Each structure stands twice: as structure tokens, then as C-alpha cells.
Amino acid sequence: MADDKNTLGEYLRARRELITPDSVGLPQLGVRRVPGLRREEVAMLAGISADYYLRLEQGRDRNPSVQVLESLARVLRLDEVATAYLLGLASEQPRRARRRPRKETVPSGIRKLLDSLTLPAFVEGRYFDVLAANSLATTLSPRLTPGRNRLRDVFLDPAEHCLFPDWEQSTVGMVAGFRQSVGADTDDPRFIELVGELSLGSDHFRKLWARHDVQVREGASVTLEHPQVGQLTLNREKLAIGGTSGQLLVLYHADLGTAHAEKLNLLASYQADLKPPVSTDRVGSGSSGAGKGQVGGSERAGGAIA
Predict the structure, then answer these.
(1) N or C: which end of the chain has fewer CB within 10 A?
(2) DSSP conformation letters of 5-51
(3) pTM (2 decimals)?
(4) Which three-class secondary structure state does DSSP give residue 78?
């Protein structure tokens, strides 16, 4: 049963093993049989008894006070985001039956916005599914299409792997963001299926997941090795979509006046060339919504190139 999982204990143990004694002012005496701090060292630094800390790690006490958790967060060098995650793990959750995954629906206004943007953009779901994408995003990567999953592609698809010259470092923040997005809701079948598949298929994912890193899903600079235009450094923005449960609008843009901006414009021209021609009678009449959308898309692509 999901309530029998010792998520809090697993998190404390994983973070404890990442803290070296010298980083907290403890002398390294004798041979240490475990990585990081010993349980009794964490307890001493946090001002609690070793027996109480042992009960926390073993899951025999799952309701520590906020003061105890904040002391542990200080010892374990947790930042604000990781501390909030720790507090969330320890909060009492009502017992509930395992439920089916809830379908994530992209608001219609966001879908219209995607089509109007002159930048590569897509909607990322709570579990890093691609829920919607414009054609420029697909030009950036063919895997940026609805129905794909960013974690599965980045870790298990060789073609997507090759897009990231610094793949190992790029995946660190991705996994940490995934853990923060899911939070304590680890009984969701979608989460269980995805983590199981990635753990079996990727040693690197399994190692990163075992660290229990937590990080806000936020924008960053990303460098891609694109097969058509070569190395491309872009700003990636992640904007929360109101009225949804964890959906983000992800946009890519280059610094103005740089070679990377020129390369992005070049990709936009490729995308424009692939669009089917629009008949003049549909343009002139303005009676067809589909015709308007196609004309607007061609004009937008042309504007991006200019």
C-alpha cells in the first residue's frame, strides 16, 4: 500500500549520504563504512537523540515536528525548495484508494497561443509529457510532439541524447525538477510506471533518482547540437499555466544579434518551407478559419526570419 512507503526515511538517508563530515566541521576519524554522515552525527548536529533519528529513517515515526525537520534540513544543507519538499513528505496525508491517472488537458487558449508564437514552444505536463507543441518546436527536435515524454526521450532515445553535448549535466536538473513536480504524490500509477521504466532502461537515471535531488522547474540556458544548424545556445523559459495542475509553457529564444539567433531563424525558414501552399481564394474570402490559420502561420514564420 502507498501509505506503507517510507518516503521520508528514504529521503533523509539519501541526503545524509551526500554530506561529508568535513563540510560540517566533523573530524574524519578511523575508517568510515558508510558514505556521508553517520546517523548519530546527523542527530547530534540537529539536536535530537540518535534513537529518534533512527526511528525517522526507518519509518517508525512519521510525524516529526516542523522544528525537527527544519533542524535536519539545516544539517543536510537543504535549500528552500528542498526544505519545502521535506516538509511535504512529513505532512500527514489522508488515506485514499489508488486512483487512475488523471488526463491533463491543455486550455484551448494556450493551444491558440502556441500556433501564434514565432518561437519554438510546447506545453509540458506534470510528468514531463509533451501535451501540445507548435511546428517550430518540432523543428528544434522531432521528439517535441504531443504524446512524447521528455524524460523517456532524453534518457532512452539515442537521437534526443545526441542533441545535448553536456547530456549528463543536463539531466541532473531534469530529474530534480521531476521529483519536485511529483512531490509526495508517489502512489500515482503514471509516476510508478514512468520511474520503473526509466530505472530499468537507464543506469544514469537510476543513480540520479537515488540522490533525491529537488529543484524547481525553471528556465535556464540550454545548448543543443542540432543536426541541421550545429551548436545552438538558447534561453529556455518555463512559465506556469494558470488553472492547471503543474502544466508549464516552455519557450526557446536566442539572444538578439547573435549567431544563435540567426540559426534559430534559419530553422524557422525550414519550417516555413515545409508548410503547404495556401490558395488565394481562401485568403481573399476570409471565410475559412483554417485558411486564416495557415496564412497567419506563413506570415509568422516569415517574420521570424527577418
Answers:
(1) C
(2) --HHHHHHHHHHTT--GGGGT----S--SSSS--HHHHHHHHTS-HH
(3) 0.73
(4) coil
